[in-house]
Design brief:
The protein is an alpha+beta fold. About 15% of the residues lie in helices and about 20% in strands. The chain has one helix and three strands, in the order αβββ. A hairpin with a 5-residue loop joins strand 1 (about 15) and strand 2 (about 25).
């Protein structure tokens, strides 16, 4: 990743709602925007286009 370890840690410690794609704090139970419980951890690696 980048050369700033603390910043990288904060950027990937995010949960993303599968329903509305909103970013949420790490470890939350439901989405702050839509209230959905379907959350996933943000991807740590960049996806490569084919």
């Amino acid at each position: 990743m980048g050369k700033f370890g603390l910043a990288d840690e904060l950027l990937v410690s995010v949960w993303v709602c599968r329903r509305c794609k909103a970013r949420n704090r790490a470890g939350v139970e439901k989405c702050r925007k839509c209230g959905s419980k379907y959350l996933r951890v943000k991807r740590k690696e960049a996806r490569v286009k084919k």
